[in-house]
Amino acid sequence: MLNYIWAGMIIIGFIISLFTGRIEHTVNALLDSAQDGVRLVISLLGIMCFWCGIMEIANASGMVEKLTKFIKPVSRILFKNVPENHPALSSIFMNISANILGLGNASTPLGLKAMEDLQKINKDKNTASDDMCMFVLLNTASLQIIPTSIIAIRAAAGSSNPTDIIVYIWLGSVTACLFSIILCKVLSKKRK
Amino acid sequence: MKYISTMVLPIAVVGIIIYGLRQREKVFDVFLNGAKQGIEVSIRIIPSIIGIMVAIGVFKASGALDIFTKILNPVTSSLGIPSEVTSLALMRPISGSASLGIVSQTVNEYGPDSKIGKIASAIMGCTETTFYTVAIYFGSVGIKNIRYVLPIALLADLLAVIVVCNIIR
Prior knowledge:
heterodimer; A: mainly alpha; 9 helices; 77% helix; B: 169 residues; mainly alpha
C-alpha cells in the first residue's frame, strides 16, 4: 500500500504543481526535503542512542520479566480461551511488557512467538481466533511509558519542555486501548 | 500534569540504572551495547525517511496537500481535528517513517510548544503503525481471515486522535 501512496504523492504532486504554477517551488522542495531527511535522522541520533542504551540496561536486568509477572493476572479477563499456564500467556505478556517499556526490538520477536503459540491452540488455522484479535489489538494500541522518538523530535526542535506531552499521549493510547478491548470482547461474544 | 510528565524521564532513567546496579550489571558496558544498536537502527531508516520526506515535500509544495485537506475539512473540523495535522493523522497508521517525517516538519514549522506542535507530537505517540503491525503478526502464522481487527484498530486510532486533539490547549 505504501508503494502506491508514495508513488502517488510524487506523481500527483508534480502534476498539480503544473496547474498551480508552483513547479519551481516544488522542485526546490524535492531538493530541500532530501536534505531535511538526513538532518532529521542526525538530530535524533543522540537521544535515540542514549535511550537504546538505557533500555538495554532495563532489558538485561530482567525488568521485562518483572513487569510481566505484574500484569499477567489480567490475562483471565482478556484471554479467556487460553488455558492457564499455557506458554502463550507468557509470550503475550512479555511482548506487552516490552512494548510498555519501549523495547521495540525485543517486543517484535516476542510478539511473533506469541502468535505462534496462539496458532497452536487455534481451531481454524486460517481464521484469527478471539485471543489473536485481542493480542494484535493490544499491540496496535501503542501503550508506552516513555514515547522516546517524540521527545527526541521535540528536543531537537528546541522545545522548552519536550516531555510535557507525555500525559496526553498516555490518555490517547489508554483510551484507544480500552476502546479496542471493549469492542473486541463484544464482537467475540456475538460470534458465539 | 506538566509535573508528572517532567518527572517521568528522570525517574525512569535513574530507576533503570539503579535496578541494573542492584542486579550487579556492568551498567555502562550494557549501555554501550544498546547505544550501538541505536545507531544501527537510525542509520538503517535513513533511506526510507529521505524517500518519504521528498514525497511529502513535493505533495505539500505543489499545493496538492492543501486541496486534499480542504476536501476533508468538513469531517475533520467536526471532530475537532485541526487541518494542519490531518495528513499526519491519516499517515500514522500506514507508515512510521512517513509519520516521523511529517511530525518533524510540522513541529519545526509551527514550533514544538505551539498547540499544533503539541497535537502533532501527541498523535505520533499515541498510536501505532497499524497496518504494519497487523500484517506482520497475522502474516507470520499465515492467517488470511482477520475478522474485525482492522476496523477496530483504525477506529481506535481515530479515537485516540480525537481525544488528543480535543484535550490539548
